[in-house]
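Retro notes, structure queue

What went well: the backlog is down to a handful. What didn't: a couple of records were mislabeled last round, so from now on we paste the full input next to the output in the thread. Example, using Membrane protein from Virgisporangium ochraceum:
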Amino acid sequence: MLVPIVALLAGLLVTTTANTAAGTELRNDRRPELTNLIEKRQQDVSAAEERADRLRRDVEALTGGIGKTDAGVAQQQGEAADREAAAGLTALRGPGVTVRMNDAPRRPDGTRPANASADDLVVHQQDVQAVVNALWAGGAEAMMIMGVRIIATSAVRCVGNTLLLDGRVHSPPFVITAIGDPGRLQRSLDESGGVRLFRNAAADFGLGYEVRVEGDVTVPAYHGSLALPGAKVPE
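Corresponding output:
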């Protein structure tokens, strides 16, 4: 007696599911939609950056014109120009090193190394920050990550296994280039505890870590916003 009842209930369930789906997938994969949303936001960021660059150029042209007739403005412009290099607002060229960091490659069978978790196989924010700190400590005169100039107010932030810099998302491998004395920069990397931990993880789990000496490399000027809404001049 139970068999017909179970069959009837199963039939009702199938019919209800079909009517609810109405020819669509109930468990629709939203990853393509999320990918399109990320791409759209990146395009919006690029458009906003281009507009900001145009406005900055307009401001510089206007203030430059005023400086020709106003001695006070001209003096301030001269003092600002003297500090541009130290602030990272001019390009710099010279010898240095490049550090390349990458996630561990996927195995063909989808397995992981023994005793490794998913977090052990990717480059994390603290790993990139450790390299950046070591290069600054080694006397780096200028630095860029993924071609983006890094200055005193730049922040190294990771979202998942991607790096967020100036509103743009970068996927590994992460490439960090610093200008300075190559020998001193390499020694600073070797002496850094955080870098040493990542190198050990690279040896254990197959992450990528490579240091290359650069005989001549150019780090571009910083073109982002210099506004500091949370800062104030100390009394």
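Agreed that this is the format going forward. Reviewer comment attached to the example: The first strand starts at residue 92 and ends at 102.
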